[in-house]
Amino acid sequence: MLAVHQTAYPRLKSSYSEKELRLHYTPTKAELAFAYHYGKQDAMRIGLLTLLKTFQHLGYFLPWSRIPAMIPQHIGQCLGFLFIPNMPTSYQESGSRYRHMRLVRKYLKVEPLRKTTYLCMQEAAQRAAQTKEHLADIVNVMLEELVKQRYELPAFSRLTREAATARAQVNIEDVTFSEHGMYVELSRSKTDQMAHGQVKAIFYAANPLLCPVRTLQRYMAALGQDSGMLFARMYKGNVMSQQRLTDHGFWRVMKQRFGQEFSPHSLRASFVTIAKKNGASNSEIMAQTFHKTESMIRVYTRFEDAKEHNAAMKLGL
Known about the structure:
hpI Integrase, Chain A; mainly alpha
C-alpha cells in the first residue's frame, strides 16, 4: 500500500524550530489585517490565521487536533498576545471554523472540493497512467495539476484510489473475440511504460468451466454494455457500481477467492512455471509476458526445476 511519505503530498511536521515558525507561519501585515477584519475575538483571530497559514503550506484543511500547538501559539505571539487564549474544543465542528474555511479559500483564490476537482484529478491520473507505472508518480502528477488549477487538495486516500483506478484501466472496446479466443489491447502496462501499446492473446480452454474466454463473454453479456469500463466495483448483493475496479480491489477479490497468500504476482509466476513445465520455450513465454530478457524466466522456474530434478524427492521420507 502506498504511504504518504512516498509522494509529494504535503504534511505538517510534528514540531518546528523557531526559525521554521518565523519563516513559514508568521502572518504578513495583509494577513493580520484580514484576521482583525473577520475575527471579532482573540481566539477566533488565532483560529482564522492558523487555518490560513497551514492551508498555504498544505493546500487542504487539517482537523484542529492535528495541528501542532506551537503553530497557533506562534501566531498568537505575532498578534501581540501576552496570554495565548485556548481554542474552544467546539471549534472543530463549529460554524465559525467552516466560515473561516470559506474565508481562507476566498482570500487565497482556491476552489473548494467539488465535482470539477475530481474530474481534474481523474483526467490527470489517466494521462499519467499512460507513461507511469508507480502509484507515487501518478499521485504526484495529480497533485501538480490540482495545485496548478488552484483546487483544494482532496484526502490522500482519494488520490491513491484514483491513481490505482487509472493504472488498472481496461475498457470493453479493448477486447476483441475471435475463433481462437480473445485479444486485449493495452495502451500501457508494467512492461510498456512508454505506452507503445501491447496486445495480449488469451485462448479458449478445453474445459468450459475453466475457460477464461467463455467466462469473460458471460460477464460481458451480464454487463450489457458495448463500451466503457470493463471491470466495475461491486456493492453488496452483487450490485454493480459505476466505478472502476481498482488494482487494490482486484487484490481483495483474489485473496477472497484463492487465499491470503496469493497476489496478482502469483498469477504471473504460475503462468511462467506451468507453461515452462508443459514445454513452452522461453521465447514463447516472453511473447505473452513481455519480459525483455530470459533471466526472469529462469528466476520463476528455478525452484520448480530444483524440486522436479532432485534425488531428495526419491528418498521415501
